[in-house]
Each structure stands twice: as C-alpha cells, then as structure tokens.
From TrEMBL:
Belongs to the ABC transporter superfamily. It holds the Pfam family ABC_tran. It comes from the Bacteria. The keyword DNA damage does not apply. SUPFAM superfamilies: P-loop containing nucleoside triphosphate hydrolases (SSF52540). Gene3D superfamilies: P-loop containing nucleotide triphosphate hydrolases (3.40.50.300). It comes from Streptomyces pseudovenezuelae. This is Glycine betaine/proline transport system ATP-binding protein. Coiled coil: none annotated. NCBIfam families: proV (TIGR01186).
Amino acid sequence: MEATLEAEHLYKVFGRRPDEAVRRLEDGVDREELRADGTTAAVIDASFTVAPGQIFVVMGLSGSGKSTLLRMLNGLLEPTAGHVRFDGQDLTGLSDRDLRAVRARKISMVFQHFALFPHRSVIENAAYGLAVQGVPRAERERRAGEALALCGLAGWEKSWPDELSGGMQQRVGLARALATDLLLMDESFSALDPLIRRDMQDQLLQLQQSLKKTIVFITHDLNEAMRLGDRIAVMRDGRIVQTGTAEDILVRPADDYVASFTKDVDRSRVLTASAVMDTDLRGDEADCACETATPDTSFGELCAISARLTHPVAVLDAKHKLVGVVPRQRLVGFLGDEQGTPVSCDSPRDAGGDKAVARA
C-alpha cells in the first residue's frame, strides 16, 4: 500500500553550523558531543511511513524530539536535512505560499491546549479551517455542524468556548481538524482528566472507524500509544529506536530502553492470539469442532476460552485452518512475566497437547 505520509532521514539541529552538525552525526558523533559545542540535535535521522487511514503514534519522554518531529511534518519547522512527502508531494521543497496552502487544505493540528478562539462560537471555531480554505459560509457551517455531531457536540453550536468543559473544548478542536486529510495531534489529550482522556480516546477510535483519517499522534503515555496506535515509533534522544505494532513493541522490544517502557503495560489489553500462540504444530493441522479462537482474538477472551477447555486453544485462520495453539501455561506466562519476556515455544504443553486439539 502506498504511503500517504513519508519521512525520509529527517534531521533538525538548532545552533551554530547545523549542516556541519548533520555531517558529524552521520559520521557517528554523539549528540552530547554536539551539545558541548553549543549545538542541539533535536531529531536525528528519523524515517518512517504512514499508510492511508492509519493512526501512527510517536511516543517518548520529554526532550526525546517527538514534538519537533511533528512540526517538521507540516512545515512549521524546516528540516535541517531530509524530506517529508505527503500524497507524493515533497513538502520540504515548497515555497512558503504553497506550504500555507497545503496546511490550509490538507493538514490540521490538534494541540494540547485546545487553541480555540474565545470570541468565536463553537460552530465558528469548528468551521475556521473551512473559512481559511474559502468555502462559502452556508457550506462550511453545514460541514462544521456535521463534524460537531460526529464529535458528540450536537446542540452546542451556538455556545462559546468558555461555556464548555475541557473535554468538550478538545472535541471542538478535533471537529475543526476533520476538514483535512491528515491530522497531527500533539499530546492532544494529556491536559485532560483521566476519565475525560479515556473518553476522548474512545471518541477518536469511533471517528476513525468511519472516517479513516490519516493521523500522527504524539504522546508520552505508553498505554495511550498502545490503545490508539496501528503502528508506534518509540523515540529516545532524538532518534527513533523502534517502529512496529503494539504487539511488536510489547513482545519483541528492540532494546532495554524499550523493554523498560513496556514492563508496566497491561498486557491483557494489547496482546492477541497471534502474539501468544505456539505455531510449532508438529503436523497437527486438523479442523477443530471445539471452541476455537482466531489470530485477532483478544488476550482476555483467549483466557476465557482456555478456562472452559481441558486442552490448548486452537487458533484458526479465515479458511478454518489450524495456524497455532495456545496452552494454558503459556497464557499464564505471558500475563505473569514482569519483564514481558515471552514464554519459550518449547514450554511443556497442557495435558493432551495438540493431539487433544486435533481430536476435539
């Protein structure tokens, strides 16, 4: 699938002689050595692609470079080196005028602190991006009203921002952003109370089911990243140290830094049967008449199925072919291992093993 957004070897250096600093980084000079010379390398050699309709989450601690990276994606910051391509167009080569046109029509940002105009009504705020695009008033109010309804704000169109709660104000910002193809969300929910934050995550996922927007979402919260991201990039000291699905990062961390991030994650909310099943079937590929799972079955549901059976759970693909089995002790191992280390595929199986699955 062709990427909607592509970042290619992006660097952002602040300070003296940034081009020289990029060359030194390419030669292997450490970031701290540059800092000693009065130069800050905020983003170093960042590359990734985002597919159409995908939520791509960039996560890391404060100072890791994630917000700087986001601002290069829509030209708010010019890369010191590298390229950003959106729908095949190289944004780094555009004039200021053309770049403003792209931002007005195709790319929106949803900020952490709402960024609403206090002197404009809710519907005027939601329609602001359309007004910038030159959409006639009747049309933009109709489309803004539809976006507000999608975000759960029908009936609040004539209200003022200070009459809304924090969560409602963020919904207005989200409704405003829906007018474009690409949403850049910079820790958009981090200023909200935990319950409201969870509600906004639900809202975003519900919207995504129907609208299929392409979204880059910045967060420092791994649980939020795991919940929202189709793919996740983990940043450290300006570099992307791992990119993958939530399961990739949880089950196969690239290094100790990523592993330390994931050790406190609620694994049952992330893992599916495909991540925990044993694919060493030893020739047992018979169809199963017993209760089975699919590769996408959630970990919690998998545990419930296992509790009702006396043998490993059979995992069948869309063609009803046996692609894996999940012994009960394997589930216990994945759930209970504090370090997040997968149980070996050579672990002893439940009594009866695969033969019991095949006979069921």
